[in-house]
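Sequence only, no structure available. Ideas?
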Amino acid sequence: MELDNDQDKLTAVLRQVLHQIKENPNSWAFLEPVEETQAPEYYKIIKLPMDLQSVSERLRSGYYSCLRLFLADMRRIFNNCKTFNERNTDYYRSAISLEKFYVSKMKEAGIWMELT
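Reply:
I predicted one. Tokens follow.
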């Protein structure tokens, strides 16, 4: 990916996309880490948790040296939610909607790619 060669540009684009995702009404369940008091079994089932606050912190710290790292973390957010929650829950539906929004914003920014 072309942006991988320009860390500042990649970070700027990811910051903009992440801001749009966090402003989306469907982001409510993903803004912060899951609290064990609200979902006691979560950390027994989900071994690699991820949330938008953690993604923001990683972006700020320069962790995302390439696009693939960001894509993997975002995919983890949605996959974790769909693994833990039943299809008929607001959490699951929010994950589906927010994932579609995320993909559309990444495509608009010209930086979408499928991870294999």
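The two ends are 15 Å apart (CA to CA).
Hope that gets you unstuck.
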